[in-house]
Specification:
Largest sheet: 8 strands, mixed
Distance between the termini: 28 Å
Order of helices and strands: EHEEHHHEEHEEEHHHHH
Length: about 250
């Protein structure tokens, strides 16, 4: 199951408390777009799939990037299941990822600001959860972005950034307020609806970007929607309802 987390600007405390029971569920959407048998410390790769050209550049992040994005979050590190050393060893930084065909072009750093960092893991995706942190200007993926699941996860997280830049300061405050209220078990149905809508918006943005590449990459929009609504959003619905019932 592809489940991703939204971290507010003010703190990642809400995330740790809300998602503490996130399950690991296998789905049927884990095929490779491009199979890479061995990730190096750094590499620059180019692929052509039908009419879609893919450029993928990655490198090992420096210690400053690691500290900002991961080591500086004690609560997040505490939630890692298989040891921080293994996580660090398996992290890579996306320096460039672009998709281009005759219908569209998608460059992640033409959407995200240049001062953002995107990390991905070449280890077990069960080791930690993917998330976006606005405070640290960082996206962390727990899987390879050249799988269907990983690419959609990346577009989903970038979709959070696209959604956030459209809203007012008041709406952003309301989102953070709802996240903290839910984390401390005093949320309402309205807070639950606000947080689920954040996820809906991010998925909608991601789906909008992948549509022009779906035929080249053999990605089914209907299958993604089924995964999103049947698993991802349903998990949030169930988890938030559980928290509301703990008042």
């Amino acid at each position: 199951m592809v489940v991703f987390a939204y971290l507010s600007r003010s703190s990642n405390l809400g995330y740790n408390k809300i998602m503490e029971k996130m399950p690991v569920v296998k789905n049927n959407y884990q095929e490779d777009i491009v199979k890479i048998d061995n990730f190096k410390i750094k590499d620059k790769l180019g692929f052509k799939i039908k009419e879609c050209s893919i450029i993928f550049e990655y490198s090992y992040p420096n210690i400053n990037v690691l500290f900002k994005s991961l080591l500086g979050k004690p609560g997040y590190v505490a939630g890692i299941k298989n040891g921080i050393i293994n996580i660090i060893k398996n992290l890579r930084k996306i320096d460039n990822l672009s998709l281009k065909n005759d219908k569209s072009e998608y460059f992640i750093y033409n959407i995200l600001p240049k001062d953002w960092t995107v990390l991905f893991s070449i280890g077990k995706k069960e080791d930690f959860e993917s998330c976006i942190s606005f405070n640290d200007k960082t996206i962390i993926l727990n899987t390879n972005p050249l799988t269907k699941e990983g690419l959609m996860g990346l577009l989903h997280e970038i979709g959070h950034w696209e959604d956030d830049k459209k809203i007012s300061k008041y709406d952003r405050f309301q989102r953070e307020k709802s996240q903290h209220k839910m984390a401390f078990r005093n949320g309402t149905e309205k807070d639950k609806d606000i947080l689920i809508q954040i996820e809906r918006n991010a998925w909608a943005n991601g789906l909008n970007h992948i549509r022009n590449f779906k035929d080249d990459l053999d990605i089914s929009i209907d299958e993604i929607k089924q995964e999103v609504h049947g698993n991802c959003l349903q998990y949030y619905e169930d988890r938030f309802t559980e928290l509301l019932n703990k008042h």
